[in-house]
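Two records follow; treat each independently.
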Amino acid sequence: MKIVILVIFLFLANISAKDIKPYKYLKASDSVSDFAKADNMLIIGTEEGIVDIYDLEKEQFVDKITLKKQKNILGDENGILIISVDYLDDRVAFLTRELNTWGELYIYENKKLTKLIENAQHISLQKVKFLDKDRVIINTMGNELMLFDIKNKRFIYKKQLGLGSFSDLVLSEDKKYLFSADETPQINKIEINSGKVMEKYEEANKRDIFSIDYKNSLLLSGGKDKRVILYKTPLQYKMTKGDFFIQSVALNPDATKAAFTKNDNDEISIIDTNTLEETHLLKGHKKTVIKIDFYMSNELITADEGNQLTFWRLK
């Protein structure tokens, strides 16, 4: 079988790219560790045990979850890291990581906070995503994939995906599949209900993968090799490069645009996914960008290691 591989190297210093400045900032309760947007709600996890809930339509904070502080070995109080957040149908799911690296899973609904996985279970939780109102998918630092039943408070399955440390996962739009990356050059496509690995993407990335996204049948990845890969299939892809480690990537809803951290100045490049031409360059972050999300087709929300979210509009 003939392998069709389209590899295109582009220099991203494209003089036609438009420089874009933020049009809005949103200050969180503390340094941002993760955020998730669903419907008109924006859920913001912080490094100090606070989850902010912001209504994008009303343009105001509507709720806040604050966890009790933990004590370190010296007796000093520290906030608990909120490592991952998600939202579905008025429910917030979030993971914590305590000083001993073990984590907890919480569900927040109707002003009620319920703990479903406890620190005493000794699981190093890393990322959570809702599948439906009764199930979440979780990955651990040690790259174990777990399907969890919220209603019955039990694991449906646990699957060890590999030896590399977990880095990122993303769901397909129909939530039948997920794509999971770790600190190797490989991405797994997994059938969620069974946990079975269906395909492996391992041709283009050469070092640790840090971030992935999937929209409209296009898989986007970036990592330590400075490569930005756009996979149509495991053997068919396009490639461009940044000037530094690719810490975060994102696709707009129809996958016509891709965003990625371009350089060590914390600038974000926007490219046309068909031509790979750089169309916009987002400038304004002063700290390392940790997450990029397309708010709409031409609007993005980003977060760095500071205490605010930044909003961008492509012109």
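The next record belongs to a different protein.
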Amino acid sequence: MSDEAAIGAAKGCRLLLPLVGAGVAWARHAAPHMAADISAPVDHLDGADAVAARLLDPVGRAFRHGEERLDILIGGSFEGRLWTASTGHVAGLFEEPLWDIPATGLPAFLRYCRFDRWEDGRLAELLLLFDLPDLMMQARAWPLNRPLGPFIRPPGPATRDGVVPGAGDPAEARESLALVEAMIEGLMAYDGRSLASMGMRRFWHPFFWWFGPAPIGTFCGHADYERGHQGPFLNAFPDRVGGHHRARLAERCYIASAGWPSIRATHLGSGFLALPATGKPVTMRVMDIWRREGALLRENWVFVDIVDLLRQLGVDVFARMAALGPAAIPPD
């Protein structure tokens, strides 16, 4: 089978395995000894039975009549292994608590990003980040400060071409991947003083969209992004080193990366998530999907395991949520 045919087949298999309503398909297409790394509080799982019991069953009970709304699905190879990357939402009535997040009985959207590794047509490895703070905000249960960016539901790509059959033009994919890899190299050139030292304007559209985790928010353009995320983040983690990827792939004008962890840093400054510096070393589970437009990056869907990061900083989000109850800070 050609690389393009293998990618197309893997994407077809991924479409058979939404996070709700596909238990029989998961039993058929997931390898019995698959491994899964899921955002906190689930963390690592070994075996398809554990994935069913600790991931699919809780999500399925919380969204009993839910559906998957898929925004982007791409495929490609990384270090000789076949991956698909996707992002979207589980949507439906939030009818039962999910990992102690209180159910609302109202429509809700559970935002996710996932990477699936395929062997012989079966799912061998799953990496999955939920934006659980987003769901907490929808349930009026987020127990920390409001984000610096607006709390909105991140849309799919403006071009509405995030999910298409086949693998696309390999030359276009190489061009897309090269742009992101050059951009990441620029990020690592930060001199510890000036955001301009990274030269990000070489890589991004002047009014790019950055759709971040709910506790951080959404930003449009360089000035807004630097104010709301990049400045506070680098003040808090000036020694951060990133780009440690378990998977990095491109298809057409889309690029995706996943690291578990992707970033290592020390919490040396204040400002990020309105927290004071702790001096603690941390790791960050991160997933990104970008859309290239011409020679520049135009949209970026970003996932960080905020619950795990806060856990390392000594903040138990779930315990704080339970303690505050209805006094938790609602979204704007």
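Discussion point: The chain has a mean pLDDT of 96. How would you locate this feature using only the token line?
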